[in-house]
Amino acid sequence: MDQGTASSASNAAAPKAPPPAPAKRQSRVRAAELVGRGWLNTGGRRLDLESLRGKAVVLDFWTFCCINCLHVLDELRPLEEKYGDALVIIGVHSPKFEHERDPQALAAAVERYGVEHPVLDDPDLKTWDAYAARAWPTLVVLDPEGYVVSTMAGEGHVEALDAIIGEIVATHTARGTLDPEGSPYVAAPPAETTLRFPGKAIELPGGDVLVTDSARHRLVRLAPDLETVVQTIGTGERGSADGAEPRFNEPQGLALLPAEVAAEAGYDLVVADTVNHLLRGVRLADGAVTTVAGTGRQWRMDNGTTAALDVDLSSPWDLAWFEDRLVIAMAGIHQLWYFDPAARTAGVYAGTTVESLKDGALDQVWMAQPSGLAATADRLWLVDSETSALRYVENGRMHTAVGQGLFDFGHVDGPAAGALMQHPLGLAVLPDGRVAVADTYNGALRAYDPRSETVSTLAADLAEPSDVIVLGGKIIVVESAAHRLTAPDLGEAAVAGRHHRVTRKRTKVAPGALRLEVLFAPAAGQKLDYTFGSPIQVTVSADPPQLLAEGAGKGEELGRGLVLADGIGQGVLQVVAQAATCDAEAEHPACHLTRQDWGVPIEIAEDGVSALRLVLRA
Questions:
Q1: Do the strands 570-583 and 360-361 form a parallel or antiparallel pair, or are they unpaired?
Q2: Where is the composition biased (Low complexity) (predicted)?
Q3: What are the CA-CA distances from residue 478 to residues 1, 102, 389 (Å)?
């Protein structure tokens, strides 16, 4: 079974596995029963298909590390509101990382991300297997009689889901088989803590600390004792509003501007307003907030501008001042971007949107959900959460200090070449030059020493640490799942834990010539759009690059001949395909971009196939 993260059909986040077949109507296929360890958001009730009779149901197979899955959670919110109790969303949590199997960690994630529908805890992937899911996220639509109607992988399917659900509701209302009243969702009681799942923190001039109170959609200024609240910025309601009563949506990263830049810009610091896909400027004197970058739309393609307020962003997660501008960890599309407050411009700094781990020149590197940044005068450090990697930028190139790839993780200290982390989210450069890493899913504070190229553990038993700062010479950790900032007791230990690997089945392909076909047909009522030239673009690369003797690069045809090099037994083909369409019969036709990325693991074998077909679903 292939396992990976599927990108949207209209979004550039890359999958880690070949996608399932395109979404399609299936003829009266009975839905499989929902089997797992337990349920959340049901008041202790265990749900089954019989209890869901009369409802349109969407099964959302997700895992809480996955940025594509988090995007889908937000895409589903307006559908839940539109259809009310006639629609039941069931989150089927099917974990990738070992930490995600912990039921307490899952319960925390459900609260952290504001999941307001029932969630099935499926740690052994029983329901995942029963529905033949192959990638995170996968969506399965069931009708009120318990039959599978549609299956689709990735994000960006709101319009398709809306159309399918609308048809189900209309059809079953007419039949009298729809039950539009009553919901199995039971909200958990609200918690009473000063902070709720804080994300990132920075020290302010004077010694106070500003922290993003992410689950409460606000910023909180704490006194140096890390407990006394000095100021709050934001109403605490999910939303997007500037001014004196601002609203945020799960904010994460923070960065102070240099004094001279702040004076010119008119604000002191910038916030990565993650779920709003915006950067917000904050004036500390009065807490006034201004949107400084982003349109609020999630990035789907390059729109040809660098004007900061005209570019689309995708889940900005952290910020750092480096090379006279802010660098943005653009987690949603596996890139680093820049924002220049003086020029009011923004654009790509590093990365191709391919989700994997590859070093080199900044315009060629591959990342996987970069989530934390820290800068010195000559190096930009980052944690690449989905590859469990610590990396850095120096002299225009990216290097990996710790990390082995998308599917290798664990808690192993010692020489960096063999060291392992598990989904780290934050970091800080210590005064002695070491890099302290919030090793989130290991619940640990780790240290990487660039001089000896070794990794050690400074503290353990932390509750999902998400950031690190140095305050008055002390290391402070944002202990997100404990809802606090804390100064842990430090030691120097060498942990020799387990090496975990998520295994993917490889597609066997014959040596030599390999035909690649991307199958695409415009959606009903649409046609290919030639307004700006060819509507088709397919980009092919490989890991390792030597895997492809011929056929790498961009092209304008859906089909392409590849030649696999001799002497390389296996690797991953990376394919990015997009197609531009527009409405065929409309006075003012809307335009659409369908885009998907695939990471296809292959093994060279004499009995392998000579053609590989991928489906780009409109």
A1: unpaired
A2: 1-15
A3: 37, 20, 19
Question: pLDDT tens digits for 272-298?
Answer: 999 999 999 999 999 999 999 999 999
Q: Answer for the pair 307, 351: CB distance below 8 angstroms, yes or no.
A: no
Give the Cα separation of 16 and 136 in Å (integer).
Answer: 9
Coil/strand/helix, residue 563: strand
Alpha carbon distance 232, 245 (integer Å): 11
- What is the enclosing helix (H) or strand (E) of 381? strand 380-384
Say if CB 69 and CB 156 are below 8 A apart. no
Taking only the tens place, the pLDDT of each residue in 151-195 is 988 888 888 899 999 999 999 999 999 999 999 999 988 888 999
Question: Residue 19 above 90 pLDDT?
Answer: no
Stated length of the chain: 618
User: pTM for the whole thing?
Assistant: 0.85
Cα–Cα distance, 283 to 439 (Å, whole number): 32
Burial of 526 (0-12, 13-18, 19+ CB in 10 A): buried
120/38 Cα distance (integer angstroms)? 6
CB contact at 8 A, 46 and 133? no
Strands (E), 419-569: 426-429, 435-439, 444-449, 454-459, 465-471, 474-479, 484-486, 496-501, 507-509, 513-519, 526-528, 536-543, 548-550, 553-555, 559-564
